[in-house]
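W.,

You were right to be curious about this one. When I first looked at the sequence I had no strong expectations either way, so I just let the prediction run and decided to look at it fresh. Below is the sequence, 412 residues in total, followed by the output.
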Amino acid sequence: MRNGLRNLKRPLRTLALHTGPLSYSHCHLPRIGLLQSSSYASVSAADIQFGQPVHETHPHLLKPGELTPGITAAEYAQRRSKLASKLPKNGVAILAAADVKYRSGAVFYEFHQDSDFFYLTGFNEPEAVAVIGTSAAQDDHTFHLYVRPKDPKAEQWEGSRSGTQAALDVFNADESGDIKDVEKSLSRIVGDASEVFTDAVPLRPSASAFSRLFSSQSPPKSDGLSKILDQATVKPLRSILNDLRNIKSDAEIANMRKAGQASGRAFTEAMRQAWTTEKDLTAFLEYTFKRKGCDTSAYVPVVAGGKNASQIHYVRNDDVLLDNDLVLADAGGEYGNYITDITRTWPIDGTFAPAQKDLYNAILATQRTCISLCRSSASNSLDKIHQIAESTLKDNLSQLGFDMSGNVRSNP
């Protein structure tokens, strides 16, 4: 990071504009000293549109210093520094943003950023590339962020973009540029690199024969990067990032707690009401996640009444809910890209039948045993806790009279 945390010391307060008619081509975010010129006039940053909320435009969502909910620009910079410390001399890491996915024609799905890209940048727009490279002395690093430039016509249709200048001044990149020119820049960076760490190029084809047969005839987006990396030493990045992301900061824990609290309260409210269809319960949960403070649902919920609950990923959620049956809900909210995953089962008519109660208590006892082991002093791995869950549930079901001697996987 050749310029250090220069931008973290310069709060986003004003926007420097040439006097005269307002034009995006004249816009750039303030740098120290620029506002002294008489040819510039100060305009509130709240009057400028970005591709995502910032504190100046959305103070109801972000506190001063936060780049995304609960996470400061300084924390994002620290994450990049930690990643750089894991790279070799002259090593680079390349991460690509997620693409917009289309449902039909020009109708798109809600955009969701690639989690690793977001973890290091906080940038929540598509068509972007982040490059983090270390120096020969391995005592410094540079953060490149290539994004879509400001474009008034495109933004009228697709919504605001942050642009290349905001990549420098808001997202604290050392270097930025138009995403359309990224191939030329990457060729230079990769050519000077000792090793390249990336997951942007798929290591194996899709496991689906259908996808391979009926995929678009145009070359995949990663082909360009594949050619650039043809002569480079390429290694996967995910294992390094997984190690970094395993340990959560206080701010991350607070976000996870907020998502969990909002989601848990949504479940509690749902259990207090009577439901006649899976669809209505699904809609209530998704609405209540947002009403309680989450940004969206973490994933497509499973709301399964009766025998539908025997399907692990039943997501049709279109059946009726009958008295004397149980309903299983597997859902959760997302806040600041941190998610909650909750599964609960309860009687539709509010009362457990004796057999339902026995099964419920067998699972509840297993859950409580596992939760009691989720502490650092217990020195248990997740795999170990999973094994304990299996053996405890097997014992509890055996006590209820179930024959647990066979292997369900061996049944036809």
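Here's what jumped out at me. The CA atoms of residues 397 and 403 lie 8 Å apart. And, maybe more interesting for your project: The chain has a mean pLDDT of 86.

Coffee later to discuss?

I.
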